[in-house]
What does this fold into?
Amino acid sequence: MSEPEHFPRNVPFKPSAAFIPWFIVDFILVMVLVLACTVLPMWLSGPSDPAVALAVLAVIIVITVIFVVWTRLYYATMAYELHDDELRWKRGVWFRTTGIVPYNRITNLDLRQGPVMRWLGISSISIQTAGYSGQAVPEIRIEAIEHAEELRELLRSAVRRCSASGDGTGSGASRAQVADTPVASVGTSMLILDELKKIRILLEQQKK
It folds into this structure.
């Protein structure tokens, strides 16, 4: 795998700093919707206790401030790292989460870009793996990435290389792995074949 321009191997990289305004703008849009469904009807319905509407507004403002602070802290913990055989990632403010995604398990790489992301010039890459096939959410999402097309092509090349090599390291399967291959790949077929042979022998014995 050639050395990429913006995503060097074995070196952690972070999402674009536009991740912060993207999260904040999306959250504010949600809060505006909440206000439109709660406070606005109170004002339009005629005489009502203004204290209730102000209390709701104050709570939303406090939640927004907390979310802004949390977003900055969350961004500081985010990191991704490309290796020859796997993608590593970590994140989390109160609960730290780390993960490893071998390239040979990746089945889908989807590039996503909403209106706010398009305005900020960033995209997200959703990574689906064999273990998460059929799930509603991907195993990992590389968020707020500039040069996302370059990163996706880099990951696709790594997936093809590891798939062609037969393992997740790109170095080829070891002798022990080759010996275990029939059990892992066609073990079920062999068991079915054995059962069919036993049934045939049993039927021949009954005919006699």
